[in-house]
């Protein structure tokens, strides 16, 4: 179903990274450095002594981040990261007019974005990359104004640059995460061999496998100094993500969806089970407590 965009008369809003997006970039730098170290080691093994080739590999990798700005690549990556599909005709007939209303309120062209359906059974929605907006089937069952409020929140993520930074950070972390996966598999294989030696009573074989596993783990840390910072970075990244959620809520409120978003969050709050989360869980949570989001939205009225 083709939707035509009718300008609202408001100036077009452009993506302006907020503090959460800027912090996301800063917190992703250690992982980027680790990825560059991994690529440099691999390139050196392939072209020993050829510094030009090693430098070219690193430059090409840094420039490859531009691929995430290509719509077809973004859609492929979003599909790889999330279990989502294109909406059916009926689902698009429901989503597209509401999305057009939200974009009109913000002064942006809805055609800049692609609409998807997240196949999760939960009531949820998310923004990814620079153009992707997805909602679950349960979200599509909400009343129109409630669904608009959720879409306005996701548009807030796009307008603040949160989703673009997240996709770019994910892309640049791939070599580092790949090395962690490969070394983890190698350590398991070495320990398995040591266990086999142990069953035959070879203490030296067991000791050798344990020492080799430790060497592999040490090499992993050398390749990925990012790992040493994870105990500190994880709470900071979660805090940054929570700030982004507050910012997206505030954007939805400025577009006139504050009361509707409060109603949606209140329904979520009543459906939540359990008491106050432990401190560690609160520190590592990517989303603020629902009650806190409601409180902020009501205060901002």
TrEMBL record:
Record-annotated Peptidase M48 domain positions: 101-299
Family: Belongs to the peptidase M48 family.
Membrane-crossing residue ranges in chain numbering: 21-47, 53-77, 174-194, 206-233
Taxonomic source organism: Actinokineospora auranticolor
Record text on cofactor binding: Binds 1 zinc ion per subunit.
Alphabetized InterPro entries for the sequence: HtpX_protease, Peptidase_M48
Name of the protein in question: STE24 endopeptidase
Domain of life from the UniProt record: Bacteria
């Amino acid at each position: 179903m083709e939707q035509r965009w009718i300008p609202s008369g408001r100036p077009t809003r452009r993506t302006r990274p907020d503090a959460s997006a800027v912090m996301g970039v800063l917190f992703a730098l250690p992982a980027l450095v680790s990825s560059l170290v991994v690529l440099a080691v691999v390139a050196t093994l392939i072209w020993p002594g050829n510094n030009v080739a090693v430098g070219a590999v690193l430059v090409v990798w840094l420039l490859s981040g531009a691929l995430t700005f290509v719509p077809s690549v973004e859609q492929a990556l979003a599909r790889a990261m999330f279990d989502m599909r294109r909406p059916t005709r009926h689902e698009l007939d429901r989503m597209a007019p509401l999305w057009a209303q939200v974009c009109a309120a913000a002064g942006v062209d809805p055609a800049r974005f692609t609409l998807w359906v997240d196949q999760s059974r939960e009531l949820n929605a998310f923004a990814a990359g620079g153009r992707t907006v997805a909602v679950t089937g349960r979200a599509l069952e909400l009343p129109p104004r409630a669904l608009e409020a959720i879409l306005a929140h996701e548009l807030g993520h796009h307008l603040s640059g949160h989703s673009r930074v997240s996709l770019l950070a994910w892309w640049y972390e791939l070599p580092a995460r790949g090395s962690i996966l490969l070394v983890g598999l190698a350590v398991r294989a070495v320990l398995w061999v040591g266990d086999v030696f142990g069953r035959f009573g070879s203490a030296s074989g067991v000791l050798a496998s344990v020492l080799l596993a430790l060497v592999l783990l040490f090499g992993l840390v050398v390749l990925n100094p990012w790992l040493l910072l994870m105990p500190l970075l994880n709470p900071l990244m979660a805090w940054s993500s929570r700030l982004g959620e507050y910012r997206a809520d505030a954007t939805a409120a400025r577009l006139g969806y504050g009361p509707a978003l409060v109603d949606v969050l209140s329904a979520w709050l009543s459906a939540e089970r359990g008491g106050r989360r432990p401190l560690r869980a609160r520190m590592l949570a990517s989303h603020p407590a629902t009650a806190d989001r409601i409180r902020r939205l009501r205060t901002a009225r």
